[in-house]
Records
---
Amino acid sequence: MGKRIVVDARGSSCPGPIVELSKAYRNAAVGDVIELWATDPGVKADTQAWAEKTKNKIESIKEDQDKIIIVIDIENR
Amino acid sequence: MEKIVIVGGGAGGLILANSLDPKKFDITVIDKSPITIFQPAYLYIAFKGAHANITKPIRSILKKGRKFIEEEVIKIDLEERKVYTKNNSYSYDKLVIATGTITDTSKMKGLKEINDQFGDYHTNIENAQKVWKSLNNFKGGSLIIGMSSPICKCPPSPLEGAFLAEEFINKKGLKNKSKITFFTPYPRAYPSEPINEVIEPLLKSRNINIMTFFDLDYIDTEKKTIYSIEGDEISYDLPIIIPPCVGVNIEYNPSNVLDEDRFIKADKYTMQINGFDDAYAIGDATNIATAKSGVTAHLEAKVLANRLNGIDDKFNGRTNCPFDVGYGKGTFVIGSYTQPVVKYPPTRIKHMMKKVMQLIYWQSLKGTFDFAFDIFFKMTDPEKLNKKYK
C-alpha cells in the first residue's frame, strides 16, 4: 500500500495545477495515490491528458462546493 | 518618522523607494550589489549578441533623500524586526522584501554541466553571452530550448528563446540541417490557452517541434540526452535550458514564511507577509501566483506605496508580459486575477513597444513615466481587450 499525497492547487490557473501535480509525481512511487485539488476548470482535461501521457490511472473526478478533486492511482513511475 | 527598510535594489525595490515621500518616511534600500540590472535584455544578449549597457549604479537610480547600504543581507528576523548583514543589523518599522530570484542548477542531474557549457538566459550576463557563443558555434543538428519546473520566471521567455533561436538559425542558412525542439512541463506550448492559440500555430509554421508534458528529470551528458519524468527523451547537440528559479539564500525567522522553493508567502492583494502586519514582499521574491516579471514588480510596488500611505489599494494580478515572437513582431500576455489572458495577436508595433520599454527603463524606475504607464494600462485593460479579441 503506497502513500496518499494531497496536492492543493486551488486558486492556481497560470501556470496551473499541472505543474503542482508534476511536482508531486516527481517524488511519488508506484502504488501511491495523488489527490489533486484545484479550482481551475481546465484541470479536468489537462489531468486526463497528463494521465494518458504518463500511463497513470484516474480513479475519480469529483466536484464539491469549492473545489474539483481528482484522484490518480500511480501505476507508472 | 516611520523607518522603511527595503531589501533588494531591483525594479520592485527601487520603484517603491522612489515612489515614497522621503519627507514622510525614512527610506533605506539594502543590496549586496552596487548595481541594478535590466534583466529582460539577457534574451537579446543570448540570441542577438546585443551589447547594450544593461546595468546602472543603484545610487544613480535612487532619487534624493533615500539611503543605500551596499551590504549582503544574511538573516531577516521578522519577530525582532531586524535585518542582519554580515557586520551590522538594521531595525525597521516596516520591511519590504524585494530580493528577486536566483536560478538553481543543482536540482536536476546533469543540468549544471550543460549550463556551464552552453549557458542560459535567466541567470546573468555571462551565461547569456555563453548562449550567444554556443549558437554561433552551432553547425546544425538538434537544438533544444526548454524550461525546467516548478518555477520559471517570465512565462513567455522560454518560447521567446525558441522563436529567436529559429530566426537566428534560419538567417544563418542552417535551417535545413537543424531540428529545433521546444519542451515544456505544461499541457501546451504556452500554459494559458488563449495566448497558446496565437503562439502554437506560429511555432508550427516555423517548424519548431513542441514537446508538451516534458518535465525535465535528468540529463545524461555522455549520451547527450535529456529525460523527462513522463518517460520521454530527446537527444541534443545544443541544449539551452532555463534552470528552475528559487528564492535567494537568506535565513528567515520564522522559517515558515518561506515555501519549499524559498519564495515568501505573501497575500496576493496586499503583498503582506503571512502573519505579519509590518512586513511585505513584492516582485519575484513572493509565492504569489502571478507572472514573475518586471511589470508585476512595478505594479505591486505602486500598490504597496499607496498602502504604506494609508490608502486601501489592492493588487489586481495584472500581467503585461512582452512576448517576442521573432522577425520583429511581438505580443503581450495580458490578464489579471479576474480576467483570463487575452488572445492578443502579434504585431510590429507591440514589438516596438517592448524596445521602447528598454529605452525608458531607467527613467521609469524613477517614476518619470508614471503618467504614460497609467494611460497604457488603462488602454490595455484586459476586460476591454477580451471583448475585442475573442
---
Amino acid sequence: MNRNLILSRKWRKYVSGTLFYIVVLGIALIILIPIYFLFTISLMSDQEAYDWPIRFFPSFVNEFVLQEASTPDKGYLLSVYSHSKGIYVPLCESKDLDTIVKKAKLKTNSSIPKELLKRKIDELKDIMEKNKEDIERLRSKMTPYLEKLERLNGRISRILSEVNKYNKKLKLAERAGMKDAVQAILQKLKSLNEELGELKEEAKKVSEKITLLNQDLIPITSVKFTISKNIFENYITFFKVTNDSIPALIRSIQVALLTIAISLSIGGLAGYAFARYYFRGKNLLKLSVLFVRMFPGVSIAMPMVIILAKMGFYDKPLGLSLVYSVGQIGMTTWITASIFMGIPVELEEAAQIFGCSKWGAFFHVTLPLALPGLAASAMYAFIGSWSETAQAIILTQFNPTFPVVVYQTLVGAKGLVNLVAAGGVTMALPAIIFTLIIRRYILQMWGGVTV
Amino acid sequence: MAELELVNLSKRYGKKVWGARGINLKVTDREFIVFLGPSGCGKTTTLRMIAGLEEVTEGRIFLDGKDITYLPPRFRDVSMVFQNYAVWPHMTVYDNIAFPLRMKKMPKNEIDRIVKEVSKLVNIYEYLGRYPRQLSGGQRQRVALARAIAVKPKIFLMDEPLSNLDAKLRVRMRTELKAIHHKTEATTIFVTHDQSEAMSMADRIVIMREGRIEQIGTPEEVYYNSDNVFVAGFIGTPPTNFMEVEVKTENGRMVLLHPHFKLELDDENAEPLKHYNKDKLILGVRPESMVILKNKDKAVFSERILVVEPQGSHQIIAIEMEGKIVKIVAPAFPRYKENELIHVSFDMKRLMFFDAETEKRLNPFKDLMEIQKV
C-alpha cells in the first residue's frame, strides 16, 4: 500500500516534470521558430525559400545541369537541383546566355560566369557529338513510349473529368431522392474507377521505362556543374531594389533617438514627480497618462498629419518622433516612477544637507542610481519607435522610415519572401544590438533598483 | 561650535494636522540633546525643520544668532545621520565621505587627509575602498557618521541612527557615539524613541508628545522630577506605577485613600496638597520606590504576587491592583514566588502627585542633591 503510494507519487512527479518541460519546449519553439524562419529565409535563394522547412538550412552551393532545349531552336535548358524534390528543376530555356545568367541569379542567388557557361555549352556539344549514335538510338527507342504515355495521360484526364461529372450528378440525384438513378450512377462510377486504375497502372509502367532509358540518356546529353551561392545576395538585392533604404535606416535611427530623448526627458521628470511628491489627483493623472496608449496609433496619426503639417514637421523625423513620444511618455512615466520609488528619498536629502541643491542632489545621487533603469526604459522607447509602421506610413511621404521601406518591399515584391526576410533581419539588427548593449540593466526596468 | 535656538517653531501638515507646535528650545554649545517621544510625536519633524528638509510653518530657527529658518539645507552648516544610513550606494566609502568636502571645493590633499582622519576615528579605515553594499549595517552607520563628522558642522543632527541596528550593536554604538561626541565636542541633537538610549547619552532630554514639548531636563531631572504623568510614564523601565486615589483629611492629617490601602501623608508630602481642592489625585510611584517588608506592621498594603520576572541583578515583581498591573523592583535576593503574599511600603520622599484632570505635577521638584543624599 505504502509502496504503491510512493510509486504513484514518483510517477506523478515524472509526468508533471515531463509535462513542464514539454510546455517550456513548446514556448521556446514558438519563439524560436519564427526567428529561425526569418533568418534562414533571408539567407536562402528564391528557389530554396519555397522548400522551407524541408530544406532547413540555407545551402552554400547550387548544382546546375545544362541540357539542350526540347526543340533546338529554343537553345539551352538550365536546371537546378532541388533538395526537397530530389530532382533537377528547370530554370529557363534560352538561346541568349545573358538571359540564362540573369534568370539563374534571380532564382538561385548564384552568379554563373558567362565564360563558364560558354565552356559548359562546348562540353555539352562535345559529349553529344561523341555519343551521337547512342543518343539517336535511345531517343528513337523512347519516342513510342513517350507517345504512348501522352495518349494514356489524355485518356486518364478524360476519364477523370467524366468521374467528376458523375459525382455531381450523384449529388443531385441523392438530393432529389431518386434511388434508381443513384444506383445506376454508382454502378457507372465503379466501372470508371476500375478503368482509371488500369490506365494508371499502365502509365506507371511506361514512365518507368522512360526513366530507365533516361538514365542512360541523361549522362550523355547534359553537363553538371556546381556554383557557389552568395549567401548575402538577398541583402544586397534588398538595398539595391529599394534605393531609399539606407537613408531610411538613418532616418529611423534619428527618429528612435529623438523619441528616446523626448520621452525620457519628459516622462522621466513626470515619473520623478509621481514618485516623490504628493499632490491632488495624482493617481488619476497617473492613470490618464496611460490612457493615451489606449488609442490606436493609426487613429492618432490622422489628426496628427494636420497638426504636424501646420507645425512644419510633416514628413520629418522630428515630427514622427513627436507622435511616437505621445505613447512612449506614458510608458516611460510609469517605468521611471517605479524606478525612482525604489531609490530612498533620504539619499537625496542627505545630498542636500551635504552641499547639493535639489537639482544637484538629483544629478549627483538619484540620476546615477536610476541610470540602469532609465537605460532599460530607453530601450523600451527605442524598440517601440523603431518597429512602428502604421503611423509612419501615414505621417511620411517622401522620407519614409525603414519599417515603411520593408513594408513597401513586402507589398511590391509579390512573393519574394526572401527579400522581405532580408529587410526584416536588417531591421531587427539595430534593435538587437541596442538591447545587447544594455542587457545588464533590463532586469531593473520595473523598479528592481538595488540600493 | 554653536548655539541653536528654536523660537515657537511649528509645522502644520495640510490644514489641521500639526506635526510640531510651539517648540521653544535653547541648545548650548557642545551639548548633547536628545529628542525623546513615542512615534508621531513630532521629534523627527522638528529635527528635519532644523536641517531644512521640512518647511517651517511658523516660528524661527537661530544658529549662532543667525536666522536660518528659510535657508536651504546646504547653507546651514549642519550635518545629519539618517535612520536608514542614507549612504550613497553608487559611491565607495571614501567617496561617500569625500563628497560633501568636494562640494565645498576643498583641495584634494586636504580632503584626503580629513577622510583618513575621520575614517580612523570611526574605525572604518580599512573599508575605504568598498561599496556600501559590501558593508554590514553597523559599518554603514559608521560611514554615515564619518560623513557627518568630516564636514565639521556647527550642529550634528541624528535621526534615530541606531534603531536599524541589532540590540547588541546598538548598545555598543551608543557608547562609541558618546565617545565620539566627547572627542569632537560637536553640538548634537539626537532623536530616539528609546528612553534608555536617551537616558544613557543625553546631556539634556527633550520629551515630546503630539507635537509639543512635555519636559526638558537632564536625565536625572526627567526621571526623578517628572513634570507630568506622560513623562513619568514614558521614562524608566518598568514605567512609573500610577494609582488613582482619593484625598481626604482624617483627624487633621491628610490621607490618600485607595481601595487597597490607606496612606497617611507626612508634613512634607502634605504641604503642597493644601491648596489642592479636587478630591482625587494620581499617585505616581516608581517601581524602585516600593519596598518589600518582612512583616506587616509598617506596610502600606499586602498583596499576592502575580508574576516574578528575574533579571539577574534584580527582580521585577508584578502584582495586580484594581485591574492594573503594579510593578516593583526588588533586589535579586530573597527570591519570591508567584502567589506569595508580600507586604509593601513606599519611599515617602519619592512619591509623585499629579492633578487628576490636568495630569500636572502637584508636589514640587526635589533638589537632586537631596535625592542623592538619600
